[in-house]
């Protein structure tokens, strides 16, 4: 069974909201103590793993391909450029590396997700 139109729209809405939240967190001067700052790279990894999943499920007509990856890497790079321009943030290549590792990890987990009944509809023909 393929993803329904409603499910695809739900994933697109979640992707949109997640992009807004990540952008806010990346540019805000507020300190969030939910996860200590020592886990910054883990935050990047998880955020981009989730963004990859949401992007992939939002546009199920194509595989998790280079277009989706380039869009998300460009988004991450853009956030770093914006942070460079903010007085309370700084540019970090390590953040971009953590973003890319999150995307690669999602790609590597696709075979696992295909065996999970709740998720495997995304790859149904």
Describe the structure.
The chain is mainly alpha-helical. Helix content is 66%, strand content 0%. The chain is built from four helices and no strands. Helix 1 (5-27) packs antiparallel against helix 2 (40-58), helix 2 (40-58) packs across helix 4 (93-113) and helix 3 (66-85) runs antiparallel to helix 4 (93-113). It is elongated and about 50 Å long. It starts with a helix and ends in a 12-residue tail after the last helix. The mean pLDDT is 91.
**Tally of separate helices:** 4
Number of domains: 1
What's the SSE pattern? HHHH
Biggest sheet architecture:
none
Which structural class do you get from the secondary structure elements?
mainly alpha
Distance between the termini: 7 Å
| Model regions low in confidence, pLDDT < 50 over at least 5 residues | none
Report the helical percentage: 55-70%
The proportion of strand residues reads under 5%
Got a strand count? 0
Descriptive labels:
single chain, about 120 residues, mainly alpha, 4 helices, about 0% strand
């Amino acid at each position: 069974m393929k993803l329904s139109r409603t499910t695809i729209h739900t994933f697109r809405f979640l992707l949109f909201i997640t992009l807004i939240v990540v952008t806010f967190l990346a540019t805000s001067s507020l300190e969030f103590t939910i996860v200590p700052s020592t886990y910054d790279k883990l935050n990047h990894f998880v955020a981009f793993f989730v963004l990859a999943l949401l992007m992939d499920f939002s546009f199920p007509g194509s595989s998790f391909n280079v277009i989706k990856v380039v869009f998300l890497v460009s988004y991450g790079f853009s956030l770093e450029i914006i942070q460079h321009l903010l007085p309370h943030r700084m540019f970090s290549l390590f953040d971009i590396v953590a973003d890319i590792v999150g995307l690669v990890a999602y790609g590597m987990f696709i075979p696992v997700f295909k065996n999970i009944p709740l998720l495997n509809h995304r790859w149904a023909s």
